[in-house]
């Protein structure tokens, strides 16, 4: 069995587990959130719709990833389906990589689909109405979507790793969401403490302890570069964007490598 065959089988499994239903729900959730924000927001409707739409996108797709990983890995181990799938004439490395690439392709496709729908929606909202600071749906928008994709790649690799070492599917949900919240928030908290030290009692000690997370976690919060699309100004792009991209890719590769290493040594009862 070739790697392409494993990817094909994995896609069939995802379709069987209501992949299209969840994809439709994710798209509808982003579109609805953007529409309601534009309708009831107090700011410029295009900017509000794009801002809220991107926030919904960064919230819904990680849940989509967790759902898929649980179906392709955790539940298969839990239901002992591996007793059949691992008897295929293929190495464990190829089996895991096949499922990973299937998940990666599905998520990239869904990300691009929702991004295109969101861009069309925002463009339609802004028809016939000039804003003082128009949004950009060109290169800055797609750079923002690329950064979201990099964020999702890290979470996908982490979820795959957790599904291999976890004993229950719920651990994948808790571990991935917990990692996501911390990795996305700690840099923003550090920036807040740097400008407003009165938020907590001992701001310096708090900032020092949080700063240690920078050596352990990727800065996923810095990958949220939506400002360049909201205000059409590339100046909002972080000056250290090459190290940010390299760091995220290294963490993704590290999680995937750990998953492969652990899966090759995993003992099944």
UniProtKB/TrEMBL annotation:
It comes from the Bacteria. This is ABC-type transport system involved in multi-copper enzyme maturation permease subunit. Keywords: Membrane, Transmembrane, Transmembrane helix. The chain crosses the membrane at residues 53-73, 94-119, 139-164, 171-194, 241-261. The keyword NAD does not apply.
